[in-house]
Design goal:
With about 350 residues, the protein is an alpha+beta fold. About 40% of the residues lie in helices and about 20% in strands. A hairpin with a 4-residue loop joins strand 1 and strand 2. Helix 3 packs across helix 4. About 15% of the residues are buried.
């Protein structure tokens, strides 16, 4: 991973570590050059230096001849971070979890972050990484790869609240083209990264798959201020899709006893209700602003699911042609055998009159 990508994720404390290292090395860093390298304002670095001097009691002074900072007492050090063995194990577990996002720069960034944690330890902590590898694992759904250049540019645009021009390949419309958007939020939904942004042309919030953005996004000089609440935006989400028309559908689906108990063990929606029935079946209810992904999800349950509401979803379930419904069924094998047997019987009846013809 290049230095530009890593800089986006460096926290204030990591800046202080690097600033401390350069001062000790006699490089005499100054606020202007350091701010440019870290892609922050000069005022941000000045605040970092003030924090070191006023809060951490760093003996830091500015040398006007060398145009940089130095320590008057070389014995002073940054406070160490206390990490227990359990803390380190949790960090390693987090690294393992992030590997399921191997198609994005997130997993790669963690490698450099973990390396930077080492000098912060007050004393060495010993944990065998092989123990984590052999006893813990995380496997997510397949995800599309994300360009590092796209990722870095979008993160910067979100952080600096700058309008950005993106080239987007829309799968739903099949249109490839340029969009001017105000980036508001980056979200990982079902193992796919999405940019939530205000589309300047359509004058509304849109959802863009980061993996479908091609070329390098171009940041404009325009800074924006928009109110956006991720909690409110995603509160009724089901899967990856969020409705854009402001309508809320009250979804009710009844599942038979073969799958009801398994469904009850999971949280499918943050506002779901699960009503068991005497025959062992159960009804799952929840509000949703979109039916797009719910249709696919219902079809996966085949004959085990029956949509009760809304009517748009009922029509979607009943309007599916038999071959597709069979393919999406969770009990594909038994359904296929049943369908094949009926087809064989029908064909036999049709050709029975010609059985004696050679």
């Amino acid at each position: 991973m290049n230095n530009q990508g890593a800089r986006v994720y460096r926290s204030k404390y990591l800046r202080l570590i690097e600033l401390d290292r350069r001062i000790r090395a006699g490089n005499y860093p100054n606020a202007i050059s350091f701010a440019k390298e870290w892609e922050v304002s000069r005022r941000t670095i000045v605040r970092d230096i003030e924090f070191m001097r006023d809060c951490l009691r760093a003996p830091i002074m500015y040398d006007s001849r060398k145009h940089g900072y130095y320590f008057t007492d070389s014995k002073w050090t940054l406070p160490k971070v206390e990490l227990t063995e359990l803390d380190v194990m949790h960090v390693l577990l987090a690294e393992q979890m992030a590997r399921q996002y191997s198609g994005t720069p997130v997993a790669e960034i963690l490698d450099s972050v973990f390396e930077k944690l080492k000098p912060l330890l007050s004393e060495p902590v010993s944990i065998d990484p092989a123990f984590i590898e052999n006893h813990f694992s995380f496997y997510g759904m397949p995800s599309r790869p994300v360009s590092e250049m796209v990722w870095v540019a979008l993160c910067r645009a979100v952080r600096e609240q700058r309008t950005v021009s993106i080239n987007y390949n829309s799968v739903s419309s099949g249109i490839r083209g340029e969009r001017q958007v105000d980036p508001l939020h980056l979200a990982c939904l079902s193992n796919e990264w999405y940019l939530i942004a205000f589309d300047l042309k359509h004058q509304g919030i849109q959802q863009y798959a980061v993996s479908r953005i091609y070329g390098i996004p171009s940041l404009t000089e325009n800074h924006f201020e928009r109110e956006f609440s991720p909690e409110k935006y995603f509160e009724n989400r089901f899967g990856r899709f969020v409705g854009q028309d402001g309508k809320i559908y009250e979804v009710r689906i009844r599942f038979d006893k073969e799958v009801a108990r398994w469904l009850e063990e999971r949280i499918w929606h943050p506002m779901q209700t699960f009503q068991p029935h005497r025959d062992g079946s159960a009804t799952l209810s929840f509000p949703s602003p979109s039916l797009y992904e719910i249709k696919r999800w219902v079809l996966q349950w085949g004959r085990h699911a029956r949509v009760l509401a809304p009517k748009e979803l009922i029509r979607g379930q009943h309007g599916v042609r038999p071959p597709f419904a069979i393919w999406m069924s969770s009990d594909f094998e038994s359904t296929f055998l049943e369908f094949g047997l009926k087809s064989f019987v029908l064909l036999k009846r049709c050709f029975a009159p010609y059985a004696g013809i050679r």
